[in-house]
Amino acid sequence: MLRIVCYSTQGELTRGRSRITNELVALKEIHLDAEEGTPSTAIREISLMKELKHPNIVRLYDVIHTESKLMLVFEYMDLDLKKYMDSHGDRGALEPAVVRSFMWQLLKGTAFCHDNRVLHRDLKPQNLLINKKGELKLADFGLARAFGIPVNTFSNEVVTLWYRAPDVLLGSRTYSTSIDVWSAGCIMAEMISGIPLFRGRDNNDQLNQIIRILGTPDEATLRRIASESPEVQLRPFPRMTRIPWASLYPKAHPLGRLLLPRCCCTTIVQLALLLQHSTFSTSSFNSTPPADSTALPLFTSTLKS
C-alpha cells in the first residue's frame, strides 16, 4: 500500500507524494455514508479502472479503504484539457498539430475502452488530463458502464449537456459507443475554435443548437430512435439545412474538417476507422515546443505509415 503525504489540493483531487517511490500521485477522497456505504459510482470506477490499463487512460495505483472514506490513488497528471486550452491556446484555440496529437490520443484511449466493452459516458475537456510530456489520458470513470451490444437498460442522464449526443437528448435509452464518439467530436471542435460547439441551456436548447448546425434529423434517424426507444415522444423539428464545416471553421486544417463530420453524426461510427483516417496518416507527431517555457511539449507517437 502507498503511504501518502498530502500537501496541496486541486478541486476534488489532492496531490501527494509516495514515501516509497517519491513520485507524485493524485488522491481522490470519497467519504462513505454510514447507512449507504460505498457509492455505486465509486465501485464502478474502481472495478473498471482496475481492468483498463492503457497509455491513454489514467492509471489507478491503489485503493485505501477506511471506515469513513475511500482514497483512490491515481498517477499524477499536471492539468486537464480545459485548463490547457485556457492557458496555451489562442483564446482557447489550439494549433492544428496539437489538436491532431490530442485527438489521436483521445480516440486511442476511447477505442481501448470500447474494445473492452466499456462506455465512458462523460467525455469532456475537464475529464481529459495532460502531463508535461504532452500525453493525454482519459479520467473520471464514475459514469462509465460495461456494455453489451445493443444496450437498452441505461439512463439517458449521461454525459455533460454540451457533449451529449442527439439520441440521448431525445431520451433514447438504447445507445452504444456512438455517444462517446459524438463527445470526442465536440471536444475536437472546441480545440479547433476555443469555443464549445453546442452550448445549450437545457436539453431542448441543446438539441435546437445541434439542429441549427447539423440540420434537421432525417426520417431514417427518427424512425430508428422511435423503434429502439418507444418511450421517446418525438416532437416536430424545424426544417434546417446543415451548415458546412468549412464555413464554421474556415481556419481549421482541411483534414480536421473531414474528421469532424465522422464524429458528429447520428450513426454508429467505428473508432478503428477513425484512427485510420487521413488526419492521422503521418508517421509521427513532432512539434517544437513554443518559446513560452510554461507550455507543455507535444506528445510524440509512432503512428501507422
UniProtKB/TrEMBL annotation:
Gene Ontology CC terms: cytoplasm; nucleus
DNA-binding among keywords: no
GO molecular function, one term: cyclin-dependent protein serine/threonine kinase activity
Residue ranges occupied by any Protein kinase domain in the UniProt entry: 1-305
Record's keyword terms, sorted: ATP-binding, Kinase, Nucleotide-binding, Serine/threonine-protein kinase, Transferase
UniProt key word Transferase: yes
Family, as annotated: Belongs to the protein kinase superfamily. CMGC Ser/Thr protein kinase family. CDC2/CDKX subfamily.
Protein name: SPOSA6832_00781-mRNA-1:cds
